[in-house]
Design a protein that fits this description.
Length: about 500
């Protein structure tokens, strides 16, 4: 056999070993290699970015990192670590000089070389805590068996001040395109876009703002530099002189990729994170409106050239209905539409379903809900963006023995899901329970708790049968007489990837 033939066969065997699915039959005279069917394989690397809390010296932030058990491909467990990024100003200038131990106010500076969170094994969450306004963004990766489904929850408690509240966000993967309905430039609001760059080269981002009358004029939202492995906060109200209650924020990158999330703060209702809406589509589900919501505001945006006419329905405990006088929403092209749904839930937890109106076009839209619980000086705000279905599997971390509500919505056919409560970060054994969600309804439950729980734990939702299910988790903590809360949606963790079928033809090799 010629040397070229030996080289090709060696390369093919190596490929089979790496991918784990390819099969090879060595050809004899007249034989051909056998092609095998494509397979879904666990991902081998995941990235996550946690935004800088940047709130108050009184803030306490908890990070909970978790990878579901049984999702990897065997072999070494790998590693999953989140490290501190470099904090920068909105114009990209660094706050901390390299090698400096403290900043100008005497606060200890970030040490990017030491992991804040380090996960060692699937199936058991780990936690870490940071405090103060100087806590920077985190950037990190997971490899091997820790990569498929890796998730981290960032939860911050601010007890007092204009930024007070329980703020929660599921740390995101890097991307190049984000939509955020339900932001604001009103006088009572202070909304920051937090941009985080995980890579070793700078990223350049653009921020566009859209109000009820279209694009908001801005001369400073273009070409924002996000230095390598750094976080940059951008105050939305500094990008435009126009003041409006409902704003849609569009973040894109010219070069590189970023994580993006909006930190909102309101003088009356406190603070929370606004995560990005699902990819623009004609039908949207916004799951998990609390039963005791006192105010619900829907904000939607149509990014294309066509207007959108939507039917608005609330999926409740026993069925779906359209609120009287608010059953239709017209969203003009590239204009933000907002509607006050008030106390739409009437004491019963539900989820909002937006579908194309009868006879209308299937126009892609994005949407989010601004939800308020409580009254007077005891109000607290949270946000629910439109989210995709849980699909094969979705996970949310930082659940506690009390104060968690899991909402499961089935917009189509009846569905059954399996919910796994992981072992606790400090001990305990996982618990599994199945739930059936009737079509067109929302099932709100107190999730299962691991037996012998110590610390926090993760909830993993898997579709067993039936139609798609959309889910969210509400976490509540009572502080100073205020029922503070935050809502995180769950969507498919994309822990597996389809590898195309490989067809090998070695008939050209010489003996």
């Amino acid at each position: 056999m010629k040397s070229t033939s030996l080289f090709l066969i060696a390369g093919t065997v190596a490929l089979a070993a790496v991918t784990g699915f390819a099969a090879l039959t060595a050809p004899g005279d007249g034989d051909t290699a056998e092609a095998k069917t494509a397979a879904r394989l666990p991902v081998e690397r995941s990235s996550l970015l946690c935004p800088a809390p940047g709130l108050s010296e009184l803030s306490e932030t908890t990070y909970t990192s978790f990878t579901p058990a049984g999702g990897g491909s065997g072999g070494e467990a790998g590693a999953a670590e989140l490290q501190k990024a470099t904090a920068t100003t909105a114009d990209g200038g660094k706050k901390d000089e390299k090698g400096k131990k403290e900043d100008d106010k005497g606060r200890k500076k970030a040490d990017p070389g030491k992991p804040v969170v380090s996960l060692k094994e699937p199936g058991k969450p780990v936690t870490a805590e940071e405090s103060g306004a100087g806590t920077p963004a985190l950037v990190g990766t997971a490899t091997g068996r820790l990569a498929p489904g890796w998730t981290t929850q960032q939860t911050t408690m601010v007890e007092a001040g204009s930024a007070r509240g329980l703020l929660g966000v599921s740390c995101t993967g890097p991307d190049t395109d984000f939509w955020f309905p339900a932001a604001s430039t009103s006088k009572s609001r202070e909304d920051y876009v937090q941009l985080t760059n995980p890579d070793d080269t700078a990223a350049v981002a653009d921020i566009e703002l859209y109000g009820p009358d279209g694009s908001l004029k801005s001369d400073v939202g273009e070409g924002i530099t996000v230095p390598a492995r750094s976080g940059v906060p951008v105050l939305i109200s500094t990008l435009t002189s126009e003041v409006t209650e409902d704003v849609t924020v569009h973040v894109t990158t010219r070069t590189g990729r970023v994580g993006a999330v909006i930190r909102t703060a309101d003088e009356k209702t406190g603070s929370d994170w606004l995560a990005a809406s699902a990819t623009p589509t004609g039908t949207l589900v916004l799951p998990g409106i609390p039963a005791d919501a006192t105010s619900v505001r829907l904000v939607a945006f149509a990014p294309g050239e066509a207007d959108a006419d939507l039917t608005v329905k609330l999926m409740g405990k026993t069925g779906s209905f359209s609120p009287v006088g608010q059953n239709q929403l017209h969203v003009k092209s590239r204009m933000t539409a907002g509607v006050d749904l008030k106390d739409i839930t009437k004491g019963e937890a539900g989820s909002l379903l937006l579908t194309p109106a009868k006879g209308g076009k299937d126009t892609p839209v994005v949407a989010a809900l601004r939800v308020v619980r409580g009254t007077g000086d005891k109000q607290e705000v949270g946000y629910i963006p439109a989210t995709g279905p849980v699909g094969a599997r979705a996970t949310v971390a930082d659940n506690r023995d009390k104060g968690s509500i899991l909402s499961l919505a089935a917009p189509g056919a009846t569905a059954t899901v399996k919910v796994t409560a992981s072992a606790g970060s400090g001990g305990g054994e996982q618990t599994v329970k199945k739930y059936t969600v009737e079509g067109g309804t929302t099932l709100a439950v107190t999730p299962p708790v691991p037996s012998g729980l110590k610390g926090g734990y993760a909830l993993t939702v898997e579709t067993v049968s039936g139609g798609p299910v959309h889910a969210s988790r509400m976490l509540t903590v009572t502080q100073g007489g205020i029922q503070m809360f935050t809502v995180q949606t769950l969507s498919d963790d994309n822990g597996t990837v389809e590898v195309p079928a490989a067809e090998q033809d070695l008939s050209v090799l010489d003996d």
